[in-house]
Amino acid sequence: MIRRPPRSTPSNSSAASDVYKRQGWGIFVGYAKTLRQNKGDIKFAGLKKEVLEVFELLDFTNILEYYKNIDNAMEAFK
Q1: Of 15, 20, 26, 45, which is most buried, counting CB atoms within 10 Å of its CB?
Q2: Nearest in space to 73 (alpha carbons), one of 42, 49, 52
Q3: 67, 44 Cβ separation under 8 angstroms
């Protein structure tokens, strides 16, 4: 009989969870690039404090635009 060690899953591994979070942010960056190549854009509005901290920590402020509220984000599209 062969026994294998238990697999690491996002529910029991903070390292795996961190990887998924970074990949999630990477999806937004890739999506923004695709939109901009097609004369579109993506803007973020009303980010929670914790999310904004990560946003700034990863230096996405130079890549992705964020605004305090939806009205400001919508105005930026004009």
Answers
A1: 45
A2: 42
A3: yes
User: What is the C-alpha to C-alpha distance for residues 36 and 24, in angstroms, rounded to an integer?
Assistant: 19
Distance CA 73, CA 67 (A): 6
For the stretch 30-63, pLDDT in tens is: 888 999 999 999 899 999 998 888 888 888 888 8
Which three-class secondary structure string do you get for the chain?
CCCCCCCCCCCCCHHHHHHHHHHHHHHHHHHHHHHHHCCCCCEEECCCHHHHHHHHHCCHHHCCEEECCHHHHHHHCC
Residue 1 has pLDDT above 50, yes or no: no
Count other Cβ atoms within 10 Å, centred on residue 32: 19
- Residue 41's CB: how many other CB atoms inside 10 A? 12
